[in-house]
# Entry
Amino acid sequence: MVKISVILPIYNVAPYLDETFKSLLSQSLQEIEIIAVNDGSTDNSEEIIRKYQQQDSRIMCFSQKNQGLSVTRNVALQYATGEYIYMMDSDDILSQPDALLICYNYTKRNKADFIFFDGERFLDKDKDYRSISSIQRTHLLEENKKYKGADLLNLMLDHRIHNSVVWLLFINRHYMNKLGLSFYPGIIHEDELFTTILTLNSDSVFCIKQSFIKHRIRTTSIMGQKYTKRNLDCYLTVFDELFRFQNSPIIRKFAKYTLSKVFYTGHQIPFNEKFSVFWRAIKSGYLKYIGWKSALVFWIK
# Structure
């Protein structure tokens, strides 16, 4: 029986794939499957995947033309058969060999919809994986205590430590499938939408006070590139979908928390690109969430 399906979307990460696969294949929990989807890589990523696939039958490999992270994850999820899902970035490293085993036992024992844990960020050129920053949220909570998702999101927003990335989550596949939840195609910041809906639907979330993942920061990755109009447009799409899902105080709070920062940072985009995205925000009724200070910075900084 497959206990964990590891979802591994891959696009032009050949220099890092060896480290990622080694950290997965050295896990003490053997009953896993690794579903690697090559999203039209132009480097030798697929060659490396095939190399490891020949060494270990637990690895599945699929290839497609480049369609983006959301579609790639959705394709991989279609093949998942494990009790639980872990979605890992293809240039990241599990920080201890018992990481998946600990997550599996803890989630199963507590009958959780999903759990979350902490992580570390390191620079791509640092071969010692020295942390440049920690992602810590579990210090606010108790282990082995069940939380409602809405309460958790409120708490994280109040303490300004909310983080939406899926690689800090370990998810019950049955729960996710029951929601019919998938990633919205064609956008970046897709985790903001996915994890918010995942969280707000749950009455059974747990945390585990350990750091299990080392997340690589690359200047060539989507998140490492300069802020563009696409970032703002995709965030607006995320909130269009979230308000369609639920027009509630917690979504409005999340919108204010996010869009104020998004448009403050958005001052970096070219002046002639600002009009259309700002007009879209106004038409959607989001100006009250952006706030006057961030709006002012957006236009004149």
Notes: The first strand starts at residue 4 and ends at 10. The beta strands are 4-10, 32-39, 59-64, 84-87, 93-94, 114-123, 133-135, 169-172, 205-217.
